[in-house]
Amino acid sequence: MAAPVCLGYIVARANRTGAVGFLSRRTRLARMADGRTLWLTAAGAAMIGALLVSLSRSGIVSLAGAGIASALLLRQRTSPGRGWWLAAALVVTIGLGITRADLPALAERFTRSGSSVENRLRIWRDTLPVVRDFWLTGTGVGTYRTAMLYYQRSERVVQFNQAHNHYLQAAAEGGVVLLALIGCACVALARAVRERLASDASGTYWIRAGAATGLLAVALQSLWETGLVMPANAALAAVLAAMAVHERPPAEKSIFRD
Q1: Which runs of consecutive H residues, i.e. helices, occur in 78-229?
Q2: Which pLDDT score is estimated for 26?
Q3: 66 neighbors 18 (Cβ within 8 angstroms)
Q4: Domain residue spans of the chain
Q5: Which of 14, 128, 62 is nearest to 54 (CA)?
Q6: How many CB atoms neighbour CB 213 within 10 A?
Q7: Low-confidence ranges of the chain (pLDDT < 50)
Q8: So what's the pLDDT on residue 151?
């Protein structure tokens, strides 16, 4: 979630160099590579590198999905000439992160995913009866592990304490009631983010876009994991949502001065 925001900040700082008129390549590069941008690049590379070192397939695939969404926004929002500079800044950041990864171990992790998929299917299959029996209100938030003491039919070498699919676990614990509330909240958030992105003409657009794509990444990962049950992750998601939908008050109504 944090990496897209960091990359969005890098793009915002790189994009500001084009507002001064014509600049030579050397001058443009010098303006981009200031101290703050270098620290942001190091932070973004560290986050991407840590994700690759963790060998988390769902995290890597989700971040790649957020990257595709970011590339589409970049293509729509920037001119071709400036887009090359911004893309180069992102490539450098991502490349530095990749240098910290164990690429052979990562490739092996992705090629040997059959057992992981089988385990997930087994968990989902044992969860579906819970959803069916408690379809309206669910078993109660936080009771998935207790419910699986009865509903788990697979070999009990390990106990299923999470569904490894946040949407399925929400259906088991909250039923239709919770899913309806979540669905309404997601639709309202998506509409608000779309409106803010469409109306934002300032440099903060890229930070806002980074927050939005960070939420997209965690939404994709939630198909395979239940990371948002951890309070720190949920708090970070809330911060990203606030960044994505924040609307600065008009200058005449603001109590703050620039």
Answers
A1: 80-98, 103-111, 114-133, 144-151, 166-199, 204-221
A2: 62
A3: no
A4: 2-111+198-245, 115-174
A5: 62
A6: 27
A7: 18-21, 252-258
A8: 95
> How many CB atoms are located within 10 Å of the residue 67 CB?
18
The string of DSSP codes covering 232-254 is HHHHHHHHHHHHHH--PPPTTT-
Residue among 140, 161, 163 nearest 149 (CA): 161
Q: How far apart are CA 123 and CA 5, in angstroms?
A: 33
pLDDT of residue 25: 60
The continuous run of DSSP H or E covering 7 comes out as: helix 2-15
The distance in angstroms from the start CA to the end CA of the chain is: 29
| Other C-beta atoms lying within 10 Å of the C-beta of residue 181 | 12
Q: Give the model's pLDDT for residue 82.
A: 57
224: left (phi over 0), alpha (psi -120 to 50) or beta: alpha
Confidence at residue 143, expressed as pLDDT on a 0 to 100 scale: 95
H/E element, 49: helix 35-53
Question: What are 240's two structure tokens?
Answer: 């990203």
Q: Which residue has the tokens 């991502």?
A: 94
Give CA separation, 200 vs 186, 203, 207, 250, 256, in Å. Answer: 21, 8, 11, 13, 20
Contact by Cβ (8 Å): 203, 15: yes
Q: How far is CA 43 from the centre of its chain?
A: 16
Contacts of residue 163, Cβ cutoff 8 Å, sequence gap at least 6: 123, 124, 127, 144, 169, 172, 226
Cβ neighbors of 72 (< 8 A, separation 6 or more) are none
pTM here?
0.84
